[in-house]
Design goal:
The protein is of the alpha/beta class. It is 40% helix and 16% strand. The strands form three sheets. It has an eight-stranded parallel beta barrel with strand order 4-5-6-7-10-11-12-13, surrounded by four helices. Strands 1-2-3 form a three-stranded antiparallel β-sheet, with no helix packed on it. α12 links the parallel β12 and β13. α8 packs parallel to α9.
């Protein structure tokens, strides 16, 4: 048991009433370019973490029934580090038993997570339709046609948004992590992109060839899911997590062109990991996603660059971005410093930067 973490968690939970009273709904500002709190109209800058797995690599639904105390501790630690948003990744197979039947137990647990977030004073970015562990994806789900799969995904979002509609602890719904439109002239064979560290983060929304332009297909998919959510929830913001190669440039493209899908979304989210020696290129890519709506860097980390270059990227990104979400995997700064891997050392540097610079970023003019 991490004693200091437990003390933090208990401290936050015992003061939950006062914290919850301060949690306002978040909306897009009147000028459409940033975020504000709904009642007080104070500027809100997302500054937080992807909480996509625990220190052992388990996904949230793999341990939230057996180790809830660890989640309480992790939420307390993220709050202590200065976060105001936590990005949660929900797996389709853990929430849907059939194409149209949600799992009641999973929705109930999600309700408990909403309460924990509210009590801790954190907003959730709820990213859905995850298929990160291929072995957990239902076989029946992979057998669906494009249209049937879209309907099952709409059913997922209708169930989740119904559960979350009345909670101020939701910052946004993210329709899917890194979706792409099938671009081949032949039928695709796999809904999931290549694995990374044992997980599949990129997902295709189609496998069938389609004569429509890929951005048109992407926009139709977004519209389908947004309409499903709006049946249950008219207030919470909606986005989708885009890969950096969503821009119309030579080479690899996802089909999710910001200018052509943006009208269906409340704000734009992009995942950018600056590369060593190419900070200017990363900033130029970021600029391409700045289409006049709020822009959040929903994933970033010094994975491919030096800590110094990463810091340079984040500081210069302020000219375009309105929010930043990095990563937290259940280990404190001191625990990472005591670790023996390069990953531990990099994470420690990142968390120290996050803690030190939070006020500056959240006070962005």
């Amino acid at each position: 048991m991490r004693m200091c973490s437990l003390i933090l968690a208990l401290s936050f939970l015992t003061t939950s009433t006062s914290i919850a009273a301060e949690l306002e709904w978040i909306q897009v500002s009147p000028d459409g370019k940033s975020f504000v709190t709904a009642k007080s109209q104070k500027k809100f800058v997302p500054w937080g973490f992807n909480y996509d797995h625990d220190r052992g690599g388990l996904l949230l639904e793999d341990y939230w029934n057996t180790d809830w105390k660890a989640i309480e501790e992790d939420f307390a630690e993220m709050k202590q580090l200065g976060a105001n948003v936590v990005r949660i990744h929900l797996q389709f197979g853990k929430f849907m038993s059939t194409t149209d039947q949600p799992r009641t137990a999973a929705l109930k647990k999600l309700g408990e997570l909403l309460k924990l977030a509210k009590d801790t004073g954190l907003y959730l970015n709820l990213t859905g339709l995850g298929c990160y562990h291929k072995q957990d994806v239902p076989a029946w789900y992979d057998r669906l046609s494009d249209a049937e799969r879209w309907q099952a995904q709409a059913n997922f979002w209708e169930a989740v948004s119904r559960q979350c509609a009345n909670s101020p602890a939701i910052f946004c719904y993210d329709l899917m992590n890194e979706p792409v439109v099938h671009g081949g002239k032949k039928k695709g064979t796999d809904w999931l992109g290549p694995g990374f560290a044992g997980k599949h983060f990129v997902q295709r929304i189609t496998l069938e060839p389609d004569e429509r332009p890929r951005p048109e297909i992407a926009a139709a998919w977004i519209k389908t899911l947004v309409e499903a959510i709006r049946k249950q929830d008219q207030r919470h913001l909606i986005t989708v997590g885009l890969v950096p190669w969503s821009l119309e440039r030579r080479g690899l493209q996802s089909g999710f062109v910001p200018e052509k899908i943006g009208k269906h979304l409340d704000f734009i989210s992009v995942h950018i990991y600056p590369v060593k020696g190419k900070v200017d290129a990363a900033l130029e890519t970021l600029k391409g996603f700045d289409i006049g709506k709020p822009l959040v860097i929903e994933e970033t980390f010094p994975l491919k660059s030096s800590p110094k270059e990463f810091e340079e990227f984040l500081l210069k990104s302020k000219q375009h971005a309105d929010g930043w979400i990095g990563f937290y995997w259940g280990k404190t700064i001191d625990e990472n410093k005591a670790g023996k891997t390069i990953g531990d050392a990099i994470t420690a540097v990142w968390l120290e930067f996050f803690l030190k610079n939070g006020k500056q970023f959240k006070a962005q003019p």
